[in-house]
Amino acid sequence: MSGRITFHKGRRLGLVIWCVWWICGGAYPLAWTEEKVAAAPPRADPARDLIQAAFEGNSQKVSLLLSNGVDAKGRTGAGMTAWQAAKVKGHADIMDLLAKAGADIHAAPPKAEAMLDWYVKEKVGPGSPGLALAVVRDGHLAFKQGWGLANLEYDVPITPATVFHVASVTKQFTAYAVARLIQQGKLSLEDDIRKYLPEMHDGGAKITVRCLLAHTSGLRDQWMLLVLARKNHGGVVSQAEVMKLLERQRELLFPPGEAFLYCNSGYTLLSEIVARISRRSFGDSTREEIFEPLGMTNSHFHTDSQAVVKNMAYSYYLAPGGGYRKALLNYETVGATGLYTTVEDLAQWLANLQRPKPGFAAPLALMQEPGQLNSGEKTGYGMGLFIEDYRGARLIQHGGADGGYRSFVLWFPGLRLGVALAGNLGSLDAREMALTAAEIYLGDELQPIRSASLVSERPSLNLPAPELDRYAGQYELYWRLTEISRVGDHLEIREDNDPPAALAAHGNHRFSLGKREFVFQDLESGKALKFTDDWKENFQRIRVSEEAQPDLCVYPGDYWSGELETYLRIHLRAGQLVLELHRHGEFPLRYVGWNIFASATGQYWWFELKFQRDSKETVTGLRLNSLLFKRCQLE
Fold first, then answer.
1. Which stretches does DSSP call E strand in 172-311?
2. Which of 6, 232, 393, 426 could form a disulfide with 536 if both were Cys (CB 3.0 to 4.6 A apart)?
3. Could you read off the pLDDT of 376-409 as tens digits, one per residue?
4. C-alpha span between 436 and 115 (Å, rounded)
5. What is the C-alpha separation between 180 and 364, in angstroms, rounded?
6. What does the alpha-carbon distance between residue 142 and residue 138 come to, in Å, rounded to a whole number?
7. Which helix (H) or strand (E) holds 271?
8. Confidence (pTM)
9. What is the CATH number of domain 552-632?
10. What CATH number is given for 123-443 in this structure?
11. Residue 322 backbone zone (phi > 0: left; psi -120 to 50: alpha; other: beta)
């Protein structure tokens, strides 16, 4: 069974972020389950509502407000109109709608600084954690400002000099350190990583430095491994511990170069390679080769969780019922994460992208070359940087999320503009806010967006039930499950731990959910499902058991994983299988398909178990999220 499916990159990162949450103690809600942002208290301001709807591209809400008599010429305190807001975001159809309703399309817009300040204040209310933001244009700092509080206990305000943990924004600095060694002839993209890390198992295939940089190695992600091994829960996770766990891995998820799978493990290994080649710590190497030459005086790789960091923002999340709680980090690992910095320092990095200092140009150019699979298909990822087209312009970007920290760094090379954002509230949409800041400054330099270009704006079709039933089923990628079901006259999809969502049908086996498109393939054999978006993934349809009720009595027993050095037990209670995972406790399982079970509780939604049988149909082991556990007898 084969097929293709494409996930939005935010969803791909979902499991990684969840694992970080668990490693950090599991004490706070996940970012995507929170309200979007702790906004200022709602006000009875129709003009404000109209402008916000225009920013969001919500044409239905704009139409409703206009039909209820809201003045299309209304302005905010910043002096902005809804038409100007729609123009900033490129929503051409909303601009037309407002113009027909009498909007003044010739009115002078407010200054970019005032518009951006209003926009952020709508997201960050008084007494809330917030963010700092810097804009770089033509190689120079054009704007910097902070909003909200770095420390809620003492009401310390955020400034552009506030230090934040920037999570996966770190990866571009790790990639630069590697690219510099390549340019110096000390390292090759095609080198086997075991040349520098001989303790790593080869997994039956050569893993190159290129594969680590491009997320095509097939390695399992370190955060998932740490969660399953339940190592140092509530304590410190060290670089040595992560390395030891990676060394014990004996299998790959796929042959290197065959697929793109975002993997933090690769960048941790890259930091080790840099340290071994340079014969100094990764922190010392990056300080001397990157931070000091660029004047990034408030940047460092954090390897001591107890070290005092001056001017550092604490991280927070929205608490159920209101207010905030701290989101604490507890690891000392670098390469994939671990960079502490300020938006002022990140502005120096962005300025150097436009006007590289001596020795920087060649490594930076290498980082921006799009990666590709063995098939030649481009992945949309360079080295530590995502590469995409946004409103007709080339965009290079990367975001980060750890604990309650949110960050995003972007650069439009052709338009000579960059934005650095760092925040300390887990519900901030860092990407959207950074892009909006860029759009406010770029104005007409970006192409407008016509809603007809969006999948969600295509005419929807009503398909007969037998046709819809052809698509229904369970699909998996590695260990992630997606369920498609028919509900009345439409299909619904359940992904990860999200609630079911309706799919709109467009014909020719195509469906959509918002801006994402789903394309089913190989329908005659009922094999495959494919999403199309900014990266692609291959999902397989799960074989459904012909048994009306599977024989659950064959599964209970003890199972051991040498890679994780941990065990699990399967129990049968009241007609239901229960998984007891060492250091995790117990939770019920639900039947999915032939020898496949998944978590029946939301807390462990990402657990999938696939039992293995021999030629006599005896259960000999299982795979928990692809990791092999062999059946054994524990005392």
1. 237-238, 300-301
2. 6
3. 999 999 999 999 999 999 999 999 999 999 999 9
4. 10
5. 9
6. 9
7. helix 264-278
8. 0.88
9. 2.40.128.50
10. 3.40.710.10
11. left
